[in-house]
Amino acid sequence: TAKPADSDPLSSLYDRLGGERVLDAIVSDVYRSMERDDELGSFFSRYRTPTLVNRTMAYLRAEWCGTPYEGLDLWVAHSHLGVTDRHYDIMMGYYARALHRLQVPAAVALDC
After folding, report:
1. DSSP characters for 17-74?
2. Residue 74: its pLDDT value, please?
3. Which of 33, 70, 80, 86 gets the highest tally of CB atoms within 10 A of its CB?
4. How high is the pLDDT of residue 1?
């Protein structure tokens, strides 16, 4: 269950979300869901999930804290995979479900 540390709209989204523990729970949940998905699962067979989770957390931490992201450009990282709008929509559905499952308040979830 998400317990945002600070409901102040001027605090970072990362802080309002509940910090590292909640970020890890969200991203880990999404990757478990994507790995089991009939359409998305094959994308992950040749990659180490913990590495992907860590990279995704680094990206979201940067986006939601306002700190610089030092990883590979997302387009470059995914351009060779053949990711479609449908794949993206499926993934975003898993993010919405994870936020709901973790009881992230709607006002915070909308900012994600």
Report:
1. HTSHHHHHHHHHHHHHHHHH-TTTGGGGTTS-HHHHHHHHHHHHHHHHHTPPP-S--H
2. 87
3. 33
4. 53
37: Cβ contacts below 8 Å, ≥ 6 apart: 90, 94
For 3, which DSSP code?
-
List pLDDT tens digits, range 73-87: 888 988 889 999 999
Q: What is the 3-state secondary structure (H, E, C) of 61-78?
A: HHHHHCCCCCCCCHHHHH
- Sorted by sequence, the CB contacts under 8 Å of residue 104 that are 6+ apart come out as 2, 4, 17, 18, 22, 26, 112
Spans of the chain below 70 pLDDT:
1-10
Residues 14/108, Cβ–Cβ less than 8 Å: no
Contact at 8 Å (CB) between 35 and 41?
Answer: yes
